[in-house]
Design a protein that fits this description.
By secondary structure, the chain is of the alpha/beta class. It has two domains: 315 residues, Aminopeptidase, CATH 3.40.630; 142 residues, Urease, subunit C, domain 1 (Roll). The protein is 30% helix and 27% strand. The chain is built from twelve helices and 21 strands. The strands form five sheets. An eight-stranded mixed sheet has the order 1-2-4-3-5-9-7-8, with helices on both faces. Strands 13-12-11-14 form a four-stranded mixed sheet, with no helix packed on it. A hairpin with a 6-residue loop joins strand 12 and strand 13. Helix 4 packs across helix 10, helix 5 crosses helix 10 and helix 8 crosses helix 10. The longest helix has 20 residues. The chain is elongated and about 75 Å long. The chain starts with 7 loop residues before the first helix and ends with a strand. The structure holds zinc ion. Zinc ion binds next to loops. It comes from Sinomicrobium oceani. Belongs to the peptidase M14 family. One of its GO terms (biological process) is proteolysis. It holds the Pfam family Peptidase_M14. One of its GO terms (molecular function) is zinc ion binding.
């Protein structure tokens, strides 16, 4: 049912009934402007803690827009808050970061709080529509203990997303009780997935993945799940303007212990958003903006009822997620084996937390890399360790390191290894007695050369391809 509160300019701005590429593009430009204005400037990278966000929540107590309440505390005693806004009939609950290292949507929620507090910027019609038709319940950072260590699990080492039914952890109790108290019609379950998810059959990262979780093993579609699917189609339409072909649909196998599946089962139309990877966005700041835009768009669509025009068939047309990406993929390398035999391999490198490592070898033709190189005609060369030992990484500058690289050195040794993880030297930094093995195997640091006629032509170093 379409409601009549909407003014014509807003229709054009958000591009529904009059829709068409042009209007949707306008919507995107307006959202981009809003993001620039309202981005929470105290959060600039994806690793932050409860102490960083608590003042941003507390300062909103009694500000007239948000009703802030403490829902309870984590295992280690960190307060978990709910921010409620609007006075509309349709209740929508949004919770983020039940996995402590999945912070992208948390950043976007604070941007949205700032946005909701704005005025006289051309968005007042939208704000009024949201306030009038929706009551929003935000629960940012459901797992602050995990966030403290930037890891997935809570302080019991539980995956909270497998604790929806047993509810043994206080964080799970908080979310479950919030749901039974509010009985939201819609729910947004906000997560991050690893950056190696791609859109099935393509090299495009699944920068955003979506799911209307199943509520039973048969994966049936009832009225509750159908509405979640319709909202997702509306979201996909906007996202295609930002990341054409970059939206994947998550696997809908029923997980009886997960929150999304149970919210759906308990009668809340639940939408899962998973923030994945995007090229050259390690801190996920662009993906944060996508979250800001798509969550606002979804809320608007719920407030106006516009989502109801969408077909569930279009939900199933969203391509599936796959997991075939790697950071660096080098194809068709010639390797000289132990007995002098030649063989061909592809080399898969992932950057990981500490340093890049080789994670797969063999025929990797079905995989894709954020960066790729066809090394046909080049031979694998392990690289030497520089003979002189440095006191620390501060005793060698990037220019000197580059000249060692050009001479076929892939690694140096230092007496004091402090700070070696943070160096931007194009060399592997080993400890005093460390060595770089000659062999090519899974787990080996991803630092080596590709040679032609015995001379290094490319250095593979620190996750980059360097032409020498
Ligand atoms: Zn997650």
């Amino acid at each position: 049912m379409k409601r009549s509160f909407v003014l014509l300019p807003l229709l054009v701005l958000w591009g529904w009934s009059l829709s068409g590429q042009q209007e949707r593009r306008t919507a995107r430009e307006e959202l981009d402007k809003a993001f620039d204005t309202y981005r929470e400037k105290s959060i600039t990278q994806r690793q932050f803690t409860h102490a960083d966000i608590e003042p941003l929540i507390r300062k909103r107590e009694g500000n007239g827009l948000f009703e802030v309440s403490k829902l309870g505390a984590s295992v280690e005693g960190r307060a978990i808050y709910q921010l409620q806004s609007g006075g509309g009939k349709t209740k929508v609950m949004l919770w983020s970061q039940m996995h402590g290292n999945e912070s992208t949507a948390t950043m976007a929620l604070f941007d949205i709080f700032n946005f909701l507090e704005g005025r006289n910027d051309g968005f007042d019609d939208l704000r009024n529509a949201l306030n009038e038709h929706l009551t929003l319940y935000f629960i940012p950072m459901l797992n602050p203990d995990g966030a403290e260590r930037f890891r997935r699990r809570n302080s019991y080492d539980f995956d909270l997303n497998r604790d929806a039914v047993r509810a043994a952890a206080p964080e799970s109790v908080i979310l479950g009780e919030a749901r039974s108290r509010v009985l939201p019609e819609f729910g947004f379950n906000l997560h991050d997935q690893n950056i190696y998810y791609n859109v099935s059959g393509t090299a495009t990262p699944a920068t955003i993945s979506v799911l209307a979780p199943a509520y039973n093993r048969e994966r049936e579609i009832n009225a509750v799940r159908k509405k979640a699917m319709q909202v997702i189609v509306a979201m996909d339409e906007l996202l295609q303007l930002y990341i054409p072909g970059g939206v994947g649909k998550y696997d809908d196998t029923f997980e009886p212990r997960a929150f999304g599946d149970n919210f759906q089962k308990w009668g809340t139309s639940t939408i899962l958003i998973e923030s994945g990877g995007y090229p050259d966005d390690p801190e996920k700041q662009y993906i944060r903006k996508l979250n800001f835009a798509v969550i606002l768009h979804a809320l608007e669509s719920i407030a106006s009822g516009a989502y109801e025009k969408y077909d569930t068939d279009d939900y199933f047309r969203i391509p599936d997620n796959d997991s075939k990406l790697t950071d660096l993929l080098i194809r068709n390398v010639d390797v000289i084996g132990r007995n002098g035999e030649h063989f061909k391999t592809d080399i898969n490198i992932r950057s990981g937390e500490e340093r890049p490592r080789i994670t797969d070898l063999g025929d990797l033709s079905v995989f894709y890399g954020y960066k790729e190189l066809d090394a046909s005609g080049y031979t694998w060369m392990p690289g030497k360790v520089y003979e002189k030992t440095f006191q620390s990484v501060r005793d060698i500058n990037p220019e000197e390191a580059m000249s060692l690289l050009k001479k076929g050195y892939a690694a140096i040794r230092v007496k004091n290894t402090e700070g070696r993880e943070k160096t931007n030297l194009p060399l592997l930094v080993l400890e005093e007695k460390g060595n770089l093995s000659e062999g090519l195997y899974i787990g080996r640091p991803g630092y080596f050369f590709l040679a032609r006629e015995g001379k290094p032509v490319y250095a593979i170093t620190d996750g980059e391809i360097v032409k020498l």
